[in-house]
Amino acid sequence: YYEPRVKQKKDFHVRFLDRKIQGPACISLSDKMVATFVYTEKRFRVIVNKNKEIVNVYKKYFDELWSTAKK
Q1: b/e string for 31-47 if b means 16 or more Cβ within 10 A?
Q2: 21 three-class SS
């Protein structure tokens, strides 16, 4: 899945979390918002949060998870 996309981007890095904390969700993080994509068999949902404090907390989570994820 990632290989064709990685070839198109110069500064694209992917890491993988342990399977025990993986699930049917994906989080996209920017400076101003957090978007959570939830995938289920019957529905696809997107939850967008623009609260500055929440965004900052998610950035901390990301930094911690990134440092422990496998390359």
Answers
A1: eeebeeeeeeeeeeeee
A2: helix
Amino acid at 71: K
d(CA 40, CA 26): 12
Question: Distance of CA 57 to CAs 3, 42, 46, 66, Å?
Answer: 30, 30, 19, 14
Encoding tokens for residue 3? Answer: 């290989």
pLDDT in tens, 30-53: 999 999 999 888 889 999 999 999
User: Which residue carries 């529905």 as its tokens?
Assistant: 43
Number of H helices and E strands in the chain, helices first, is: 2, 3
